[in-house]
Design a protein that fits this description.
The structure holds two protein chains of two kinds.
Chain A lengths: L1 E11 L5 E11 L3 E5 L6 H7 L8 E6 L2 E2 L5 H6 L1 E4 L11 H6 L8 H4 L6 H14 L14 H14 L4 E5 L7 H18 L2 E5 L3 H7 L2 E6 L2 E6 L6 H7 L9 H10 L1
Parallel strand pairs in A: 3-8, 3-9, 6-7, 7-8
Antiparallel strand pairs in A: 1-2, 1-4, 4-5, 9-10
Helix pairs in contact in A: 5-6, 6-7
Chain B lengths: L16 H18 L4 H6 L1 H9 L9 H33 L7 H16 L2 H12 L3 H25 L3 H8 L5 H35 L7 H10 L3 H29 L1
The structure holds adenosine-5'-triphosphate and magnesium ion (MG).
């Protein structure tokens, strides 16, 4: 069953940048997909389109059979967790409260704006914290945590939503390799154990190959590769990461290869 | 000094600064001549000024308990005005912040409301409220409340506009409603700054509330007005000292707490 159907999406930003040029894809429910591609290829734009943080210029996105639009936006967002490169926690709030924001969509606004939560929400948040292994930090201020810990809080916040889909935009780009590896393992485990569909964008080809069921290569707003990690050979990578303007990007490419 | 030849610098961009400075100076000169401001007369007047201030040299504190009671009334006026402003600002600010507002129209309306309140001088508002509601501290509370709502709302809104976009996106992406986004991504992120602004406004309102008494809005200013009108310089001097002491006191407290906050 397809969880996500993206149909001929185009995205032009108001400043004229054409970030996506006719992208179509289907993502199976419960799969782990990694998006790769050079900087500016449109990975973030594509991911953000799947929960309406960006709106397509043309084309449609449907999630579990519902076409994304203003009327269903909040309902779809409630079931979609998002993890960010820079964690995007509310720094002044405690870890626990940050995780509880994952429960907001399940609560009427009147109680939640007063920071009142059900016992059940606290339990769910507690479980989420346990899962990412930072229960003991629950009452610490989020901005006092290390990057790796903050990203776990980000994962816990997504988990607390009880999501059907998790989108992660370069979740390990701000982390050291060990912390990055842990986050990837966590995401993979969530995908396997909970059957949650996971879509991750990455700059590390090695991680992509190790964790993905399927890899989608994006270049200049188009899908240029779509297949199993095994199929990601040297010349394919060359194709995915080739530079539009083909000037002086050899080094960048070499770095990618070294990682792989 | 004959190393490798330098690439010549690109042409220096044209700067407006000297022209602006010249224009300002010119306007200043025009103003001085237009208002017939004469520095000579100012020099002659100093004798008169010294003589006038000489009348205030023997303050009379015999009525101090009464003054303190009036001072308390003035401070209470400032407090209630600040409280009203904080509450109004709290509700209006999210609409007046571009990143949290519910649309460009709502944003414009909220901004204009705040601008309007800020543009109404509190002295004028106090005169109007005194005329319509009668003498006493209540018109003063309203005047301060309305005027400083405009300030606090604007300060809050501008702090909100500086919140990291990613944080707001992250909370919205959980499916939270707009009110929830404001309460979880908005207010917590600017809480400290906001408390600082409120203290600053409280401090300002204490100063202003003393003056508002002069137009009949209660408190210690009203008493000062009366003694001045009856040429009771000794009592006026005592009142002025009490007012200045109170203002200094609040200024110090507010500066101290704001220092602690950041
Ligand atoms: N809000 C925006 N306004 C204008 N242009 C934008 C905006 N967001 C992205 N772009 C442009 O769209 C293109 C695709 O950007 P996107 O962030 O999706 O790339 P990416 O693949 O995620 O790159 P990176 O690997 O550097 O994160 C880029 O050229 C970028 O400059
Ligand atoms: Mg990106």
């Amino acid at each position: 069953m397809s969880h996500i159907i993206v149909n001929r999406i185009e995205k032009q930003f108001p400043n004229g940048v054409q970030a996506l040029r006719g992208v179509s894809m289907e993502i199976a429910a419960g799969s782990f997909t990694v998006l790769i591609g050079p900087s500016g290829a449109g990975k973030s734009t594509l991911l953000r389109m799947l929960n309406g943080l960006e709106l397509p210029s043309s084309g449609t996105v449907s999630i579990e059979g519902q076409t994304l639009g203003p009327r269903v936006m909040q309902r779809i967002r409630a079931k979609t967790g998002m993890i960010f490169q820079h964690f995007n926690l509310v720094g002044r709030l405690s870890v626990m409260t940050n995780v509880l924001t994952g429960r907001l969509s399940h609560r009427s606004w009147i109680g939640s704006v007063l920071y009142l939560f059900h016992e059940r929400d606290l339990k769910i948040a507690h479980h989420a914290l346990e899962r990412v292994g930072i229960t003991e930090k629950a009452w610490e201020r989020a901005d006092r945590l290390s990057g790796g810990q903050q990203q776990r809080v980000g994962v816990a916040r997504a988990l607390a939503q009880g999501p059907r889909l998790i989108l992660a935009d370069e979740p390990v780009a701000s982390l050291d390799p060990v912390a990055g590896e842990e986050i990837m393992r966590l995401l993979r485990k969530i995908c396997d154990q909970d059957g949650i569909t996971v879509l991750v964008s990455l700059h590390q080809v090695a991680l992509a190959k190790r964790y993905a069921d399927r890899i989608i290569g994006l270049n200049a707003g188009k899908i240029v590769f779509d297949g199993a990690p095994k199929a990601l050979e040297h010349d394919v990578l060359n194709h995915i990461y080739r530079n539009q303007k083909a000037i002086g990007n050899e080094e960048h490419f070499e770095a990618q290869m070294a990682y792989a | 000094m004959n190393g490798p030849e330098l690439t010549p610098l690109p042409k220096k961009p044209f700067s407006w600064t000297p022209i602006w400075i010249f224009a300002w100076l010119l306007t200043l000169c025009l103003i001085v001549s237009d208002l017939h401001i004469s520095f000579g007369a100012l020099a002659y007047a100093y004798r008169d000024i010294i003589e006038y201030f000489g009348r205030y040299t023997s303050p009379d504190f015999s009525d101090l308990p009464k003054y303190l009671k009036l001072l308390f009334q003035t401070v209470a006026t400032a407090f209630w005005g600040t409280l009203i402003a904080s509450v109004v600002g709290f509700f209006l600010a999210p609409f007046a912040a571009r990143n949290l507002s519910s649309g460009p129209k709502v944003y414009r309306i909220a901004r204009e409301m705040l601008n309007f309140m800020r543009a109404m001088p509190d002295l004028l508002l106090a005169l109007i409220f005194v005329a319509s509601l009668g003498l006493g501290p209540f018109p003063g509370v309203l005047a301060l409340g309305v005027h400083t709502s405009g300030f606090l709302g604007k300060f809050f809104a501008e702090s909100m506009e500086r919140i990291d976009r990613g944080v707001i996106e992250a909370v919205s992406a959980t499916g939270a409603s707009r009110a929830q986004v404001v309460m979880y991504a908005g207010w917590p992120s600017i809480l400290r700054e906001s408390l600082g602004y409120i203290l600053y406004i409280m401090d300002r309102n204490v100063r202003m509330a003393s003056v508002l008494g002069l137009v009949g809005a209660g408190g210690i200013g009203l008493e000062l007005h009366d003694t001045l009108r009856m040429f009771r310089y000794d009592e006026s001097a005592a009142l002025i000292i009490v007012i200045l002491a109170a203002i200094l006191f609040f200024d110090c407290i507010s500066t101290y707490i704001r220092g602690k906050l950041t």
